[in-house]
Fold this sequence. Notes:
heterodimer; A: alpha+beta; six-stranded antiparallel beta sheet; 35% strand; elongated; B: alpha+beta; 1 helix
Amino acid sequence: MTMRRLGILVGVTLGLGCSAAFAATLSVGTGHLWAGSQTLTKATCTVTGGTDTYSDEKTSADNSVSTTLSEQPDSTKRQWIFLRFDLSSCNIPTTGGADSATLTLFESSAPRTNRTLSLAPVLATWPANLPFATAQALTYGTSTASVATGTANNTALAVTVTADVDSFVKSPATNFGWRISDGSAQATQDQAIFNSSEAAANKPQLVINYEK
Amino acid sequence: MKLLANILGLALAAAPTFVACGAAASLALGSKSLSAGSAAVTPCGGLTSLSATWHVDNAGNVTHVNVGGIPAACSGETLSVTLVGSGNASLGSATATLGGCGATCSATFSSFGTVSAANVAGYSFGVAG
């Protein structure tokens, strides 16, 4: 009887001791953990000249070979400028993006009163010879860029087009360029005339600071 | 009776041994023994690298960052992205729990505050779960 009690006591005591020993073991969780980094490369690409024309509500002339691009908002005499740059020469991967992008237009003849021109991304391809009716039938995205014409002739106008160019870089198939217009028809304004890509100098230029 | 007293004495003598074990479990100062273990902490789904792309507004500020191509095994884990500037300075961070994964997981982060893309030199990533 006494030996039995002794056995039980030793057993219970060892059992408690083993429990304490298990509690003393620090278990390490088997979770997941990873850390990494990505370094970006910065560069600049300048594209001078592109595909451009302007649509004239008054005539059906092919303006794609003109050395100038005209814009005016007058009702029944509207003129819209279309301009597209091929960015393939920049070799920016679609995983890259624009830090900043500036379009420079050389305004050879400014209107007598300042106007604000809007740049709307074109959402479909357009022909070099672009009648106004065809231009009206095109679809356009939301404008994120605009520029004031000022009233001084022979002035380089810089337009920030970062958001649109960033989108063109990531999705080259959506790059159909811009329409430059006043947006709505107005009365008795005069033209803003810019150098086109066919001009001898001061062609439209797009400078992109990008990362990849 | 005497034998019972001896047994009780033996038990009391053994007790400090186990009390010592209990003390070790709490890692108190003065502990006489300590053990340590280890287990491998591996990345989910064999993750070895990540890449991100940002989108900007017309002012050149980062609007959001996309991270894709994350192994589906990382679903439910936490991904942190930090925009890193020159000198490894943190320009902004965001965290998301990965979910809605198909063949791979992806996540979009948009709460970096106002950060000029021109100042971002890279990304730092962390995945934990």
